[in-house]
Amino acid sequence: MTGLAGRTAVVTGAAHGIGAAIVAALQADGATVHGLDLEAEGELRVDVSDAAAVGAFVDRVGPVDVLVNNAGGVRGQTGRPLEEVTDDDWRSVVDANLTSTFVCTRAVVPGMKSRGWGRIVNISSGAGRSVSLTGIQAYASAKAGQIGLTRQTAHELGQFGITVNCIAPGFVLSNPSTQRQWESYGPEGQAALVAGIATRRLGQPEDIANAVRFFTAEASSWVTGQTIAVDGGHGIF
């Protein structure tokens, strides 16, 4: 799939893993890609939940054709009983995953409307369709919120030539957090997890990037408001 030559793309959470793979995929399709991350340097180091910072970045780079909202994660948190979750813990995860998606989408939509073309892809999680395997209430809620925001914005923006879709990845070894989670299962738990995946393998960042390539292609212009589980068939069990 090609056809993004001359297009400008922004990928959030791009420093490693899934985000880095998405950057590489969109570059291969011809786009000029800006990968934002708090671990990046210079003008690419942007807190994507900060509306002023995101607005200033979009003003600098000009109109954005493709936005991939990949930033998020669990912010170093682990599962705890609900009554032990503090307000700050809740807001930290919700801001990183859901508020950032709203803020970045709002910032790029005016430019997309003016040109009558745009592609927005939100990276949710299997936790948004079911439950968080690590018991993080805010993460499951924020990821479910991304799916709802996908539907609502797809309904609103379709008339302007803008599609909005969502990917719910399964278990992908893509960063230190998922590596720690994988190791915590031990050999028996790891075997059980893989046995629950129809393809009998864990996901790779490129698996998610390939789905992004589909949603951003011109050939998918009549596909919007959808959430696709890229999980090796884990969701069918």
TrEMBL record:
One GO molecular-function annotation for this sequence? oxidoreductase activity, acting on the CH-OH group of donors, NAD or NADP as acceptor
Keyword check for Mitochondrion, yes or no.
no
Query: What are the UniProt keywords, alphabetically?
Result: Oxidoreductase
Please indicate if the UniProt record lists Oxidoreductase as a keyword.
yes
Q: Which residues form the signal peptide?
A: none
> InterPro entries attached here?
NAD(P)-bd_dom_sf, SDR_fam
Q: What Pfam families would the database entry show?
A: adh_short_C2 (PF13561)
GO biological processes: fatty acid elongation
Family indicated by similarity:
Belongs to the short-chain dehydrogenases/reductases (SDR) family.
Q: Which PANTHER family match?
A: 3-OXOACYL-[ACYL-CARRIER-PROTEIN] REDUCTASE, CHLOROPLASTIC (PTHR42760:SF40), SHORT-CHAIN DEHYDROGENASES/REDUCTASES FAMILY MEMBER (PTHR42760)
| The protein's name in its UniProt record | 3-oxoacyl-[acyl-carrier protein] reductase
